[in-house]
Amino acid sequence: MTLSPCRPGHHPLWRTGLLCLLLGVLAPAAATDEFARQRAQLTQEVAEQARHARHALPPAGFDAAVLAALGKVPRHEFVPPERRAQAYANRPLPIGHGQTISQPFIVALMTQLLELKGDENVLEIGTGSGYHAAFLAERARRVHSVEIIAPLAREAEARLRRLGYDRVEVRLGDGYYGWKERGPFDAIVVTAAADHVPPPLVAQLKPGGRMVIPVGAPFLTQELVLLRKERDGRVTQREILPVAFVPLTGGPAR
Ligand code: SAH
After folding, report:
1. Ligand 1, atom nearest to 95 Cα
2. Model confidence over 25-81: pLDDT tens digits?
3. How far apart are CA 216 and CA 124, in angstroms?
4. Which atom of ligand 1 lies nearest, measured to the CA of 156?
5. Does residue 20 contact residue 6 with C-beta atoms inside 8 Å?
6. Gap between the Cα atoms of 238 and 252, Å rounded
7. Are 133 and 168 contacting, i.e. CB atoms less than 8 angstroms apart?
8. pLDDT grade, residue 219 (50/70/90)?
9. DSSP 153-205
10. Cα-Cα-Cα-Cα dihedral of 83, 102, 194, 52, to 10°?
11. Which ligand 1 atom minimizes the distance to the CA of 175?
């Protein structure tokens, strides 16, 4: 049987109308439930993966609040429509312009390492799809995110507005230089790989603040580095685990 209830045909109007209404309400609700189920499954997989990466995480693994963000942020809204079916696979996905949305495990890990309590002013470099910014907004008071590719910045900004992430502010610009007017920051996360830690970012970090950044040669594996600015201004660094990120472009001409 072909079902085309939404085209007015020979059915009495009230019947087609009712069917349209039912499908209009039930079909999206069913899809929403399916995505929620996939998110719950992803949350479980990431928590499981944490057991194999104990050295990278606190002894108790992920905070419940970080796992809750995985179960809440609608990743399918941040990937291109043709990738929606894979949105909740625990891997990176292309988002156009040669860029990728990071693997959920890595998003959770980077967020965990920042030790957010909920009242922080956070800077993200590399907005991309806006997923990680939304994720951070679940854990912090304000998120400022800088993106260097204009269409990505524009689309992420519109997407975050549409989804109600009002505590995220996106700016088009070169994130190598941070966002001085919105600083200093309690936490900084860089989601593209640099061959050195940009000094302007260290300068915009508050004493006691933390930064997570992949450091290493572009197009090879890099090392995820956790940097801490001590209360006396000294900077300490710890290597967490090998990662593969797209390169951080911009910065001073070499
Ligand atoms: N956090 C993103 C994934 C980022 S991919 C997400 O959740 O989807 C890395 C992003 O960094 C890309 O969008 C790339 O354009 C951006 N980028 C690279 N160099 C940059 C720079 N100097 N300043 C700002 N963004 C930069």
Report:
1. 8
2. 566 667 778 999 999 999 999 999 998 888 889 888 899 999 999 999 999 999 999
3. 19
4. 8
5. yes
6. 25
7. yes
8. confident
9. HHHHHHHHHHTT-TTEEEEES-GGG--GGG--EEEEEE-SBBSS--HHHHHTE
10. -140
11. 23
Mutate to test the pocket of ligand 1, among 114, 123, 138, 147 (most ligand atoms within 8 A of CB): 147
Matching residue, tokens 């609040």: 65
Cα separation, 103 vs 244, whole angstroms: 10
Ligand 1 center–CA 229 separation, angstroms = 23
C-alpha to C-alpha distance for 214 and 195, rounded to whole angstroms = 9
Name the average pLDDT for the chain: 91
Ligand 1 is surrounded, with C-beta below 6 A, by: 99-102, 125-126, 128-129, 131-132, 146-149, 152, 174-176, 191-192, 246, 248-250
The answer to whether residue 14 scores a pLDDT higher than 50 is: yes
Ligand 1 centroid vs 185 CA: distance in angstroms? 19
Hey, whose CA ends up nearest to atom 26 of ligand 1?
126
d(CA 66, CA 62): 6
Q: Is 145 in the active site?
A: no
pTM of the model: 0.89
Give counts: helices (H), strands (E), the chain.
6, 9
